[in-house]
Task: inverse folding
């Protein structure tokens, strides 16, 4: 067992409220999701992995950009809410919901990993170990995006800034873009150096980055 908040912590949160972070209601969340989706460098992805999907608000958005989405959460109640949301929106085709945590093995053949408000539930050694184990399994050119609340939460082992710094120092990940304001930090990373959006879509004047050696 890695060092992270216990499953019972989240069970208690969802026992108190069906949407404890008000992911479906708060403007902060809607804005953060919009920025996250806008930063993704490709129009479509083959297979996204979203650990800590909660009630499925972001999962529904990802389902519109990805052929497949594997979304996980440790809380059964959260997964039930996500299932209802996706079923009502006719987005359930192509989405797999599993009761699991970030520190368990990631699904194979994913080309997009979305760490949205989940990395700081692990302590620093555990998060580094998970990333060191799983990121080398990602294919070259895969995208990893990490979005985290910047204000300190006493219950969480890490802050959003600390989480982002750990992701940024993971061997093999290259920073493509970064968004920062007082509330949220979002880092966009690729496995290996990859062309910019303009270069990959062959806009005149754009150039490719040097390849890794």
Result:
């Amino acid at each position: 067992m890695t060092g992270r908040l216990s499953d019972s912590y989240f069970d208690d949160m969802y026992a108190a409220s069906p949407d404890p972070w008000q992911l479906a209601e708060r403007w902060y969340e809607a804005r953060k999701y919009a920025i996250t989706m806008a930063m993704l460098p490709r129009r479509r992805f083959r297979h996204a992995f979203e650990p800590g999907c909660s009630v499925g608000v972001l999962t529904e958005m990802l389902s519109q950009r990805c052929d497949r989405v594997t979304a996980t959460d440790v809380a059964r109640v959260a997964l039930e809410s996500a299932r209802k949301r996706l079923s009502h929106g006719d987005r359930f085709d192509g989405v797999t919901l599993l009761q699991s945590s970030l520190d368990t093995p990631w699904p194979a053949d994913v080309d997009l990993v979305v760490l949205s408000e989940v990395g700081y539930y692990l302590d620093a050694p555990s998060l580094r170990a998970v990333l060191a184990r799983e990121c080398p399994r990602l294919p070259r050119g895969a995208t990893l995006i990490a979005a985290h609340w910047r204000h300190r939460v006493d219950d969480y082992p890490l802050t959003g800034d600390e989480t982002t710094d750990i992701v940024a120092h993971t061997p093999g990940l290259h920073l493509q873009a970064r968004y920062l304001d007082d509330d949220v930090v979002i880092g966009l990373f690729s496995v290996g150096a990859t062309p910019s959006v303009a270069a990959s879509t062959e806009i005149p004047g754009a150039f490719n980055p040097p390849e890794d050696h």
Q: What stands out?
A: The first strand starts at residue 45 and ends at 51. The beta strands are 45-51, 66-73, 95-99, 112-116, 143-149, 173-180, 184-191. The chain has one domain: 7-200.
